[in-house]
Design goal:
single chain, 582 residues, alpha/beta, Purple Acid Phosphatase, chain A, domain 2, 2 domains, 15 helices, disordered N terminus
Amino acid sequence: MKHFLLMIALIVFMGTHLRSAEKPICRIAAISNPYITTLSAKELGERSWMAQIAPAGLERSIALANALKPDAMIVLGSLTWTGSDDDFLRVKKLLSRIEAPLYVVPGAKDLVDGKDDIFLKHFAKENVAGRSVSVKGVHLQFAPLYEEAGKAFEIALNQLRTGLAKTQDAEAVLLFSELDFPAPKDPKSMSAIQKQFWNLIHDHKVAVRFTGGHAHSVGLVDSLPYWRIPSSGWSYSPKWPIALISVYTKRIELDLVHDGFQPPQRLVVPNPVAAERMVKADADPYGIPTYSEDLKRKPELTFVQLSDSQLDDGTVPRYAARYASDEQMNELAAAQVNRLNPPLVFMTGDLTNKNTQAEWETFNRIYSKLKMPFYPVPGNHDTLDDRAKLNRDALGDLLESSVKNWQLADKLSGKKAANRTALFTHFTGKKPYYAVEKNGCVFLCLNTGVASVDPEQLKWLRAELERTKDAKHVFVLGHYPVLTAFGGNVRNSESRIILGLLKKYKVAAYLSGHRHRYNYRMHEGVMHILCDDLCWGEYLSYQVYHVHDDRIIACWKPIFRADGNRPLYERVEFPEPRFKER
């Protein structure tokens, strides 16, 4: 059964390549930081989860790699957690199951007292640190690993120069290096070593720089994309058990493989050996070259999904650290969306943290700057607490704000308010649930603020789906997910009803937030997308959607605290279930 499922996974995944008859020159699978250890959960202490997650993640990656049958398999970064003989023996046994040629670069955890003796004892044959390898004519250049930062750049540069001298007839050139050479913003102010590095990148037509890490990220420095390969052994990374690099004559496809039954998350970059380099971010009108590429394909509609702005008023001390960057990140998100200038924008709940007047005023100050129509829906944090539970035992240090919120709602209504979304409606001017239509697309916006959809709203949803059954595209949006796999859902009986309606009426996608992390999953022909948040969480990102006649392209757009913008995004493409070829 396991092999049967993997073969299906391979068929489903490879189906994403059928649109083009061109075959890749080579395909390379990659993971980073397996962190395999023989320590027990007790010995690992606060990292006790590694005892199960690390080996399970690596086994999943190996099984999928073997199903995909790449031309090579690369493991970047720490194979082990302690660098001990026992840890290396265990990871060696696991990696011996890989059927493709294996190339390994050690990480810091593999070096005991800064030395690689134990690593080389077990992986001398597979070690490629500081070396170059050719896979079907594609040049792979690996940087050395050195602890002395002062020497690292010089040593890496010398080895890079030596390795890239072998690329004259290469089909493509890929760089695997943790060393980050700053971008040449002003050629006159660049150091000699910077100039040498960037001259090598351009002269030898390096296409991408790959690094390892815990979480995944993607960026663009000068005209060189970089792509961080996620860990197979860290707690939140195994959603993507493997990365797949497919090299073509004029392009390189970089895929994060969710699992064999889901479409990959993909970044496509030029192969400078036969195509023009990617345009620099500051030369692109939107600062995001991938967005410009998508607009050139003339989608029927482009829209943005934000989620969980969750602005906090700073009145509860325990929230101070968590929400230290909430206004900054939301300001950045609003500014970026304005630059993209899509026809419409949605926010899938938790606009505020405590539903207070001060938080609503901050929200409106930031999002009133949007130049396009803006459609928020309520989340649990935007919903007044149950009046029957206004006590210290139930609410703790949130009691004062909750009482004041009800007092404001009563004042606004002129009586004892019964509607728990009264403040949401007052401050946004929107009903708790409603429909929006634009360019043949229908958006049904739900109120799931109490993790429930009452009978009256379900009746409305059925009626709207029936009314719009001949529309080209239908999306349903709610704060809470309805898919069990995402957790934190609308209560089960109602989720089952909604899932049945989504399938029956061929809804293109259900878009939600709440979980403060990004994910996606195709379920019974309907795509479910979990949008990340804008205050704290896994990445801090939002979603951009491009709607075409036969397909929808969902784009993951990270912001990140450190630099505010990453000028590339990755795409997940899925079919429009209502499309019929004419």
